[in-house]
Amino acid sequence: MVATSSIARSAAPVGAPVRRRRRHGWVFHVVMTPIAVLWVLPLAFVVLIAIRSFDDIAANGLGTLPHSFTLAAFRTAWVDGSIGQALGNSIVITISTVVLVLFLASLSAFALSRYRIPFGRAILLIMLAGNLLPPQILLIPVAKICELFGIYDTLLAVIAVQVGFGMGFFTFVLYGFMRSLPDELFEAARIDGAGDLRIYATMVMPLCRPALAALGALESTWVFNDLLWALTVLRTDTRFPITAALLNLQGGYSSSWNVIAAGSLIAAIPTTIVFFAFQRQFVSGLLVGVNK
Q1: Would you call 59 exposed, middle or buried from its count of C-beta atoms within 10 A (0-12, 13-18, 19+)?
Q2: Residue 238: how many CB atoms within 10 A of its CB?
């Protein structure tokens, strides 16, 4: 009897947390389901507009259910609205910026975290402080600098600006991550005869993969959705990224809501793909250091 009662007492607390987790799970779903629906409704509304014809929208209004189905708006936005060409420009700008800024920021963070550089902490703070300046006050200086270097109205100008403004934040984040790596790893690598470049390439970069994936996903979204710097250093329509092309599309097809909605959906596809492709690495990168 004593053994049975002790077993019952020891087993009782085990079921309570399970029931508590189940109850909290139901509460979570009850609360989050309406929020998820509110997030999805605008997207569903845009999709319904994009697949309708202009005559259907003009006759029945935007708020009604579709009375027609057509993909002509996507073709109009892609060809006539130059969304296809702008999407290619945005992909070139985004990929180039992400690769360059991650490479340069990782080199800077590695040097600042593993070498005794004079005024290293001050250099890091100055790089980070550059991101605190309002970009509006830098528009004219950035445009003049691009003209001075002869890269104004080129994709290279957008890439250079995005890399320059992303270096400070990315270096700061990677610096904190690399500082948390154990010194024993570096000492063991040096005992084995590895040089600094080999340590950086074969040890530090693989260990920084979660942080690099998270930063790469964030930078891809920021660069792809940027409009300010594109309008600052670009003037030719054929070099515009997707955001500037959408602005032109809205001006040229102000009454064709189906074309504007189709262009917006096309513009949302790349960032959606990036998020779902790097979702696991993105979440793990955000959780880096939580258990330290």
Answers
A1: exposed
A2: 10
pLDDT digits (tens, 9 = 90+) for 36-59: 888 888 889 999 999 999 999 988
**How many Å apart are CA 267 and CA 260, to the nearest integer?**
11
Residue with tokens 């290293």: 120
CB atoms within 10 A of CB 130: 14
pTM: 0.83
Q: Which residues contact 54 (CB under 8 A, 6 or more apart)?
A: 256, 258
At residue 289, does pLDDT exceed 50? no
Q: Which amino acid is at 255?
A: S
Structure tokens at 274: 């990036």
Question: b vs e for 6-35, b when ≥16 Cβ sit within 10 Å of the residue's Cβ?
Answer: eeeeeeeeeeeeeeeeeeeeeeeeeeeeee
